[in-house]
């Protein structure tokens, strides 16, 4: 029977796998015995998948997915492995398992869609940057990454920018400890209505300046001093009806001038 939930160390797995690979090589693919032997080999060598997954440090949310794609790589390696060529299975399978996991991270775990070229650049940059930090105790500069990776300066810059699209932060994520802490959304700025008003004022200012003095005074009393039409009429010595007609005509003149400018 296949090993179910058995804990087998790498050395024991290697010793048990050798005769099974020899037997699998003799069997016809698709037969019940072939499937039985291959399934046993998969269970014996799952330690390689778990070891490869730990290297990539997946988050708990995708840990099972990483194990699944790593197992696919293991199965592909078992299917292609030829024990008669004298290679160790572990050395043969490790690149295939790691390749499947890398492809999973490259194609499915990015929060923002970026071209594959930039994903490949990001992976290369990350690998070289980690190795450099371990050697030198600091992060590498762009020029040092160009030298280490063989990429152009533009490719390095684009790859570093692309790395920012790998993960996102929820706007509801707290930025301060405690239940009453502000969220990221609370700290984001909004549109300032005064900015739009400033644009309007800059546009309308020369039009107002071109009006006769009485119309300018009329606008100031109505919109700056918030006076009623009756109060304006009393101030200027004209009727409230005349004030209304002057306001209507003046505002129409300003609207026509704004329409010409836009």
TrEMBL record:
What Pfam family is a match for this entry? Sigma70_r2
- InterPro entries cross-referenced by the UniProt entry: RNA_pol_sigma-70_dom, RNA_pol_sigma-B/F/G, RNA_pol_sigma70, RNA_pol_sigma70_r2, RNA_pol_sigma70_r4, RNA_pol_sigma_r2, RNA_pol_sigma_r3/r4-like, WH-like_DNA-bd_sf
| An annotated Gene Ontology molecular function | sigma factor activity
RNA polymerase sigma-70 domain: which residues? 65-78
Gene3D superfamilies from the entry?
Answer: 1.20.120.1810, Winged helix-like DNA-binding domain superfamily/Winged helix DNA-binding domain (1.10.10.10)
| PROSITE patterns noted in UniProt | SIGMA70_1
Q: Any idea which UniProt keywords this protein has? A: DNA-binding, Sigma factor, Transcription, Transcription regulation
> PANTHER family given for it?
RNA POLYMERASE SIGMA-E FACTOR, SIGMA FACTOR F FLAGELLAR
Q: What is this protein called?
A: SigB/SigF/SigG family RNA polymerase sigma factor
Q: Which organism is it from?
A: Streptomyces doudnae
């Amino acid at each position: 029977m296949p090993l179910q939930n058995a804990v087998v160390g790498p050395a024991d797995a290697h010793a048990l796998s050798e005769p099974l690979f020899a037997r699998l090589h003799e069997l016809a693919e698709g037969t019940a015995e072939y499937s039985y032997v291959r399934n046993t080999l998969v269970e014996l060598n799952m330690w390689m998948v778990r070891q490869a997954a730990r290297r990539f440090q997946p988050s708990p949310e995708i840990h099972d997915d990483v194990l699944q794609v790593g197992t696919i790589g293991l199965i592909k390696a078992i299917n292609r492995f030829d024990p008669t060529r004298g290679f160790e299975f572990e050395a043969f399978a490790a690149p295939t398992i790691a390749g499947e996991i890398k492809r999973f991270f490259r194609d499915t775990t990015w929060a923002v869609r970026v071209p594959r070229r930039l994903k490949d650049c990001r992976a290369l940059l990350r690998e070289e940057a980690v190795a450099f930090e371990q050697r030198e105790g600091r992060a590498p500069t762009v020029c040092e990454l160009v030298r280490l990776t063989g990429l152009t300066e533009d490719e390095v810059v684009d790859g570093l920018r692309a790395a920012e699209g790998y993960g996102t932060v929820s706007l509801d994520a707290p930025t301060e400890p405690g239940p009453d802490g502000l969220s990221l959304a609370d700290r984001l700025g909004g549109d300032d209505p005064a900015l739009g008003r400033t644009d309007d004022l800059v546009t309308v200012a020369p039009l107002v300046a071109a009006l006769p003095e009485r119309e300018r005074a009329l606008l100031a009393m109505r919109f700056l001093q918030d006076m009623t039409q009756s109060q304006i009429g009393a101030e200027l010595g004209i009727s409230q009806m005349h004030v209304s007609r002057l306001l209507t005509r003046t505002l129409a003149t300003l609207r026509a001038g704004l329409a010409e400018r836009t």
